Amino acid sequence: AALTLPAGHVVSAAIIAIAPLAGLLSLARREGAMNGDFLGAAIIAGEICALLPLAFHF
Fold it and tell me: Which of 10, 33, 55, 57 has its CA 20 to 30 A from that of 47?
């Protein structure tokens, strides 16, 4: 069976996940480079973006 998510949950999850990524990109611009710490944080934020809609669904 396909997993269907309400649109509101997907939008909420996207907003919650985009906020830390925007902060990371802003910090990277101020620091002048993207290093391993930024990459690790971006990976974690991406995982949150993928998993958060599932948490809302159940």
Answer: 33
What is the distance between the alpha carbons of residues 13 and 48, in angstroms, rounded to a whole number? 8
**What is the full per-residue pLDDT of the chain (58 aa) written as tens digits?**
556 767 777 777 777 778 777 887 788 788 877 677 777 877 787 787 777 767 766 5
What CA–CA distance (Å, rounded) separates 9 from 24?
23
Q: Which residue has the tokens 């990524």?
A: 21
Kindly report the pTM of this predicted structure: 0.48
